[in-house]
Amino acid sequence: MNYENPYYRRVKGSNTMLVLCGHCKTGIALYQKVGKGRLLRMYVDRIIRSSIDLSGKPGALHCPNCNELLATRMTLKRKNTEAYVMVRGAYNTRWV
Q1: Which element (helix H / strand E) includes 49?
Q2: What is the mean pLDDT, run by run of 10 residues, along the chain of 96 residues?
């Protein structure tokens, strides 16, 4: 993971999670998750570090190793925030 996220903000009561590609097991992002449930959306301001440069605001997250689609970028209407909606079965997670 090479790139620091310029939009990163610390969230109180969160735990750190490592997001991996489900196909080649390459580390994609270090994310701070709030709550116990599954990872359905990755908010851009909660991503600590990633292997993709987020300063250019890419439209989708692809694995840098196998180029598999992991998530698509979306603006949520209620919260008016940017998030990546994860593709189910395309990623694995691990608590750090």
Answers
A1: strand 47-50
A2: 78 90 92 91 90 78 90 88 92 92
The closest alpha carbon to 1, from 28, 24, 22, belongs to 28
How far is residue 82's CA from residue 10's CA, in Å, rounded to a whole number?
A: 16
Spatial separation of the C-alpha atoms in residues 17 and 14, rounded to whole Å: 9
pLDDT at position 1: 61
Coil, strand or helix at 46: helix
Q: Report how far apart the first and last C-alpha atoms of the chain are (Å, whole number).
A: 14
Contacts of 6 (CB under 8 A, 6+ apart): 54, 55
Q: Which two tokens stand for residue 4?
A: 């620091």
The tokens for 42 are 């990755």
Assigned token pair, 29? 């992002």
For residue 38, the model assigns a pLDDT of 92
Identify the three-state secondary structure at position 44.
helix
Bridge partners of residue 81, in order along the sequence: 76
